[in-house]
């Protein structure tokens, strides 16, 4: 019997001093989706300025993320889609060869083409993959990448402001070392891209708390994440969805969050957690419809921290950017166990926090549309589903072969490996911790060789334990009608 994660909820969080790494690219705030687009990477820069001016940086290892390479991105995404992202620009997107695929790749007002798009994807994704590698190397207890958490992107298309799914790629990295990964998503939108990728495996449990309707009763983007969507095949009951109506407050949220987490820790027994801290679940978000305070948002993250598992903590949504920065800075402090003052320190973006310059802001007086009876009924249904899962067995991990080893592959083999849409799944390099040091060479980094994977591929490969290298031919691609056809 595997030992359950050690839970110490009674411990004073301020006394804990975990090893915390923090990934930040100073150029991330320069990317712009469009003048009136709600997604603003500038919020990550604002968060960073608060983190620095509160002095929190002194307690963390700060890293500039290594840009995700083409081979990293095509571990999950299709070659055709990544080739499109790295070559399309606002200037050439109307050319016939690009115009013909815009709709197929879901390029639209939500997911526009903007200057530096591919570099932006490389930056936020590189931080998440690099953070997962740090955890795999045993270098860190907690890794933070506020630029990450873009959970809607699919294998071959953009979705919901997300282009590459850094979360899926980070989880695939973690699965090289960890037999079971728990993914928790508190963004107000369902984490559909991550759920879909791991829908058929029992080695990743995806848990999403999200809005099912907005204040008008209209279905909430992305219109997925029904409570009865619980996974398929080997992954049955390993996809957990807890949809809620508008107006969720701190008390209601905590009342359903903690029992679900306790049950998952008991039954699934993960060895690592990936946490998407989307801040659009905060009160007053311009896109969201919930009523969580910053302290309430952070409280559930702190609760998971008490299980003393390695954690990769990512950003996500959040569109009232001053509150996003407040929230993520405060959550950084709670992960460190360091109290910070409510009065904001002076810094470059101080005017965003007029008129009172405070860290915490009051919630609204909006009505909670979720009755206690409704929440209890949903909680019991989720707990019942979780009681049926069996802990995924430990699997043998394989070390990725060094693709730069002289004589390892012939030129013909290498040419076949380059065209990922025609080759079998192959091992990709592990990220070496040394690349975080400025004086280290990266010449020995291994090049990637795996094709872009969909959930059917991932489910098959993880079921046999072959994360890094596998003799199994990936099965047929995942089809959109999976749920409709009984999975």
UniProtKB/TrEMBL annotation:
Substrate binds at residues 110, 160, 319. GO terms for cellular component: nucleus. Residues 398-431 are annotated as: Disordered. It catalyses: N(6)-acetyl-L-lysyl-[histone] + H2O = L-lysyl-[histone] + acetate. CDD domains: HDAC_classI (cd09991). InterPro entries: HDAC_I/II (IPR003084), HDACs (IPR000286), His_deacetylse_dom (IPR023801), His_deacetylse_dom_sf (IPR037138), Ureohydrolase_dom_sf (IPR023696). Keywords: Chromatin regulator, Hydrolase, Metal-binding, Nucleus, Repressor, Transcription, Transcription regulation. Residues 408-418 have a biased composition (Acidic residues). It is found in: Nucleus. Residues 37-333 form the Histone deacetylase domain. Pfam families: Hist_deacetyl. The active site is at residue 152. One of its GO terms (biological process) is epigenetic regulation of gene expression. One of its GO terms (molecular function) is histone deacetylase activity, hydrolytic mechanism. A divalent metal cation binds at residues 187, 189, 280. Its EC number is 3.5.1.98. This is Histone deacetylase. It comes from Chrysochromulina tobinii.
